[in-house]
Design goal:
Layout (H helix, E strand, L loop, with lengths): L1 H22 L6 E2 L5 E8 L3 E14 L2 E12 L4 E13 L2 E13 L5 E12 L3 E10 L3 E8 L10 E3 L2 E12 L2 E11 L5 E11 L6 E11 L4 E10 L3 E13 L33 E14 L2 E5 L20 E2 L5 H10 L4 E4 L24 E3 L3 E4 L10 E4 L2 E3 L13 E4 L1 E4 L7 E5 L4 E4 L2 E2 L10 E6 L2 E6 L2 E8 L5 E9 L2 E6 L2 E8 L5 E9 L2 E6 L2 E8 L7 E10 L11 E3 L8 H10 L19 E8 L5 E10 L2 E5 L13 E9 L5 E10 L2 E5 L2 E9 L5 E10 L5 E5 L5 E8 L4 E9 L5 E4 L6 E5 L2 E2 L4 E3 L2
Organism: Legionella jamestowniensis
Protein name: Inverse autotransporter beta-domain domain-containing protein
InterPro entries: IAT_beta (IPR024519), IAT_beta_sf (IPR038177)
């Protein structure tokens, strides 16, 4: 830095000497010898930027000036730059030499401030210009805070010892470094003084990657006051930046048709070449500095993997350490019971391995969850982990889990039982339910429960029985059955029984039930019986029931939400369905899940085929037979209140998450009744805020049947039972037939006789009701 200062001082003295000796004789220096120049420039690209630059010659003549210069820049990234300085420009033998120094004050997009000393040198002729700048920050690091490494999304600082997990405290800093940039420009007078330019830059922060980049572009003067330009830069950190700019200029020196070097005395100085895409004047990077302080983040961890050692009860705490994992085949009920005796409320880390046929014979409390064997987690948490145990990674378990719920620690504080990063599949079809939860405070996340085969799938993915404070998030829950025996078939995605404070968020629930014999079939997305404060914000719910048995007097029923006996005096304590901000799961995700399970599939397995038209999709279909009922319901309520909150500023009905799609279809047969209901209410209240109902009932090639499509249907004997719809979406209700003589009945809202029936806030214009495409009125059928 001292050497550079000496060079700049020598150059400044030399320029001043040239100015005094050769120029003073011809032109008498004066104060403010030239009209100042003021420029404003707008940058348009990935971000919008604005820059103002002013140069004021305070002493000199037409062959040399002493000037002050100020620059301000503001970016849409919340960064800005203020720069003020001065310099000398002098002409000798038709060469313009210059030297300058600026003080920059930068605010980066992360909110940190960095003062920078910015000296530079330049050489210009009437056609060529060369500029070199240096950047020397007076402060090179600013701390943004101290965090655990894992909170920053990095696992490189995680370590293990025995049964404990540690992480390091990381000082997050924003860092800048010394740098240099340079630009060479060429002016072409035959093209109206078009200027081509190119250059590069280099910055060297201490703890992050050096920044090396190149720049280039073209400036096209329209007239003295207006110039347009295209600029492009690329470096190894910020990647490509392309900008279109418009510059307005007031004052200064008007260019001659044949430019002279004197025309360039007030030209702008090209600086800050590495920050065209930001309001700041110096590039910055975020760096993680390890403080060396280790923090215990989790203890009482018991490690399992496919390369461990068998569990030996006599070894006590010496089992299942990080240094001596337990073998995957030791992951069974006797081992977990022994661990619970040695150290209650353990955290179980399962790395890559084979975890099959888990559990021992037990008898859960309900018929729904009855199974031949379940693995009981009694206050223990279960985590799928990577081979080094540092990150969550889904591991496959085969069997079924009974979760007793969170316990208390030694100080009596409540604990939460966690299941994370788990793929749970059935063991040869032994288990009707994948996970049964019978106690409070359980979190399930990043899991895939169930599969789309009889051997590996469950008829109920998760059953919550008499539990509280249960959270299930970011998981795929599959209920599946393909019935080929002489029994009815029932599948349920999530069963919530006599439970409260349940949250389902950002999950994908896929339910598929197929009946191949002359019996009934029922598919339910979420069953709520005696549920309180149940909040659901799923990414996708897809429920399908198929009856291929051509039976008589059977029922084929698909229902999204089957709610019963859930009626609290506080309206907002009743079950609530909330529109998800996320798009439904894509077919690519489904295929990825299948690929992960490919080793468990057989060539004859029937694959799921979920709809992606709507995030909430229900479909019931029947083939053949006589006197059958085909019933599809979005929401079915018995002695319950239910809230649907779909209204946001963004839902328009054009997105899958705006729509509740309900379809019922019969193909062939005689005397079959097809019924599709968006919302069915029997003694209850529905508050529907903004959903777009799409309800379609169809009889295809049947005879003497009936087709009924209803948006909302309310009935029962309750004194107050009704529908409240605030700012609803467009509801499409269709009853259709193809090559069929079935009777058609389509209605927007049907109210069955009752002492008191209430409909509030319904806009009939938001219902499009048709029978075989013919509009039907009235929208509301009020028989009460």
């Amino acid at each position: 830095m001292s050497g550079l200062s000496q060079k700049l001082s020598f150059l400044s003295l030399s320029l001043l000497a040239v100015y005094n000796s050769s120029l003073h004789a011809e032109f008498r220096p004066t104060s403010f010898p030239l009209i100042p120049r003021l420029s404003g420039e707008g940058y348009f690209g990935n971000r919008a930027l604005g820059e103002f630059d002013g140069m004021v010659p305070i002493y000199g003549n037409q062959d040399g000036i002493l000037y002050v210069d100020g620059l301000g820049k503001l970016g849409s990234d919340d960064g800005y730059l203020g720069s003020i300085g001065g310099g000398l420009r002098g002409i000798h033998n038709n060469y313009l030499w210059g030297a300058y120094v600026f003080g920059d004050y930068n605010r980066t997009s992360r909110g940190q401030h960095f003062p920078v000393v910015n000296p530079g040198l330049e050489l210009m002729t009437n056609y060529l210009d060369i500029h070199v700048n240096g950047y020397f920050p007076t402060t090179k690091q600013k701390s943004e805070g101290i965090f655990l490494g894992s909170d920053l999304g990095t696992t490189q600082y995680i370590s293990f010892t025995g049964h404990s997990q540690f992480d390091s405290l990381i000082n997050v800093v924003e860092e800048v470094g010394n740098g240099v940039d340079g630009e060479i420009g060429l002016t072409l007078p035959e093209t109206r003084n078009l200027r081509l330019f190119g250059g590069g830059y280099h910055f060297a922060p201490q703890n992050t990657s050096d920044i090396n980049g190149i720049v280039g572009g073209v400036e096209v003067p329209i007239n003295h006051n207006l110039t347009v330009a295209f600029r492009d830069s690329y470096d190894n950190v910020q990647k490509n930046t392309a900008l279109f700019t418009v510059r307005f200029t007031l004052g200064g020196i008007k260019k001659s048709e044949q430019p002279t070097v004197r025309d360039r005395l007030l030209d702008p100085i090209p600086r800050h070449l590495g920050t065209w895409d930001t309001g700041s004047g110096i590039p910055s990077q975020q760096a993680y500095l390890n403080t060396g302080v280790r923090v215990l983040t989790r203890d009482n961890i018991w490690f399992f993997s496919g390369t461990g050692s068998p569990f030996v009860a006599a070894n006590g705490f010496g089992n299942c350490t990080f240094e001596n994992n337990c073998l995957d085949s030791s992951f069974n009920q006797p081992t977990l019971d022994a661990i619970n005796t040695i150290s209650p409320n353990a955290n179980l880390y399962i790395g890559p391995g084979t975890y099959g046929n888990i559990g021992t014979t037990t008898s859960p409390s309900s018929i729904t969850a009855m199974a031949t064997s379940l693995l009981t987690l009694d206050g223990q948490s279960l985590y799928g982990r990577s081979i080094d145990f540092k990150t969550g990674q889904a591991q496959i378990l085969q069997g079924s889990l009974l979760v007793t719920g969170g316990k208390e620690d030694e100080q009596g504080r409540p604990l939460t039982e966690t299941i994370d990063s788990l793929i749970l599949t059935n063991q040869d079809g032994q288990h009707p339910a994948g996970i049964v939860i019978v106690g409070p405070r359980v979190n399930i996340s990043n899991a895939a429960i169930g599969f789309d085969t009889n051997d590996r799938g469950y008829r109920t993915a998760i059953s919550i029985e008499g539990a509280q404070e249960i959270n299930i998030s970011n998981s795929v829950l599959i209920a599946f059955a393909d019935g080929n025996d002489n029994f009815d078939v029932t599948t349920t995605g999530v069963a919530i029984l006599n439970s409260s404070d349940i949250t389902l968020r950002n999950n994908t629930i896929l339910v598929d039930a197929t009946q191949r014999t002359a019996n009934s079939v029922v598919a339910r997305g979420v069953q709520i019986d005696r549920g309180l404060r149940v909040n659901i914000e799923n990414r996708q719910l897809d429920v399908q029931a198929h009856n291929l048995g051509s039976g008589n007097d059977t029922t084929t029923r698909a229902v999204g939400f089957d709610v019963s006996n859930s009626d609290d005096r506080n309206l907002f304590d009743n079950p609530t369905l909330i529109r998800s901000p996320s798009n439904p799961i894509s077919n690519e995700v489904i295929e990825a899940l299948r690929a992960l399970h490919s080793l468990l599939r057989t060539p004859t397995d029937v694959a799921l085929n979920p709809s992606t038209t709507a995030a909430f999709n229900v479909k019931a279909e029947n083939v053949g037979g006589s006197d059958n009922t085909i019933l599809a319901q979005g929401v079915s309520m018995l002695s319950s209140d239910f809230l649907i909150n779909y209204r946001t500023n963004s839902n328009t009905g054009s997105l899958p998450q705006d729509i509740i799609n309900v379809e019922a279809e019969n193909r062939g047969g005689m005397g079959n009744d097809v019924v599709a209901q968006g919302v069915f209410i029997n003694n209850g209240l529905i508050v529907a805020n903004g959903p777009f109902l799409h309800v379609v009932a169809l009889d295809n090639q049947g005879s003497n049947g009936s087709v009924t499509a209803v948006g909302y249907q309310a009935q029962g004997t309750q004194v107050f039972s009704g529908i409240v719809n605030v700012s609803g979406g467009l509801n499409v209700i269709e009853a259709n037939s193809i090559n069929s003589n079935a009777t058609l009945d389509a209605i927007g809202i049907r109210l069955q006789p009752v002492t008191s029936r209430t409909v509030i806030g319904i806009n009939e214009a938001l219902f499009r009701v048709t029978e075989n495409g013919v509009p039907v009125t009235p929208v509301i059928d009020n028989n009460g």
